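Subject: Protein record for review, amino acid sequence with backbone structure tokens
Concerning: The relation between a protein's sequence and the shape of its backbone.
How to read it: Take the token row as a discrete description of the fold.
Enclosed: The protein record, placed directly beneath this head.
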Amino acid sequence: MLEEPKAQVTGAKIVVIGGGTGSFVILSGLKNYAHDITALVNMADDGGSTGQLRDELGVLPPGDVRQCLVALSGSPRARDLFNYRFDEGSLAGHAFGNLFLAALEKMTGSMSAAIELADDVLNVEGQVIPITLDQITICLDHGGKEVLRHERNIDGATFVKQHPKFWLEPRPKVNKAAVEAIMAADIVVISPGSVYKSLAPALVVPGVGAALRKTTARKIYVCNLINKPGQTDNFKVHDLAAEMERLAGGKFLDYVIYNVHQPGKRLLEKYAAEGELPVEIDAAALKAAHYKAKGAELLAGEVWENQNKKDPLASQRTLIRHDPDAAARAIMKIYFS
């Protein structure tokens, strides 16, 4: 880890696209190296606390927005408050930040206005922008008996065939502010994360792929560490990069950053028992790719385990994760190259 990274030494304009844990990790690392960071968040989440609030209040999904706001926050106590989850009563499983954003959206009539108010509370350095402001539902045709709809149904599904057809209903309009951020960026990062839950709902929004191909920014994909069983089995680094471009409608990547340091044997065996295997590297395929592939030790030194056993909406498992600082340093090396 670097000591006291000086954020002010770079004037980089950085955009991070994704949602969930992957964006949280990347943003948490990058904020130590740059102030001008924009998180573009997919707006298709309808599981857990977020799904309940969407169904009951008709608000846009607050969960991934909350995580990105917290990642960019300069106030530790406010971060803890926004991440606090109730563990009893009718609010069990809900994060305070989700409720706060839902209340602000109902009060202001706009998720964008709600985010601006939350920025002040959290002392956010940077900005968080929904990639669309439309109410949308994930739809996926994987060759099965029926089309899968809703993130909560797709997340744990096993596909009949890989590289499924993916779309959003109704057809959304891209948030103009998201396109403007992409076009003005020095670096655009596609965060690691669930391909069809976190990344596809952002990349398939009409206008996003075109902006990625048109912008002069350096486009970087930080590759996943582990494949998702039943969906991306046996995908290698270049396969995942190709899927990012397929979903975005064409080639756009300039760089792919991938991990070269594997977890310990015991943890790998635990994951393998559940069908989850590390993303492998095909050196020949990466050498032949149109983008530059950069290997780095990205694995976090410590794994994370959810300790809130009363939380019915949170994962109970141990997770292999990217190290925020290692990922940020790999990205910034490309900026300075």
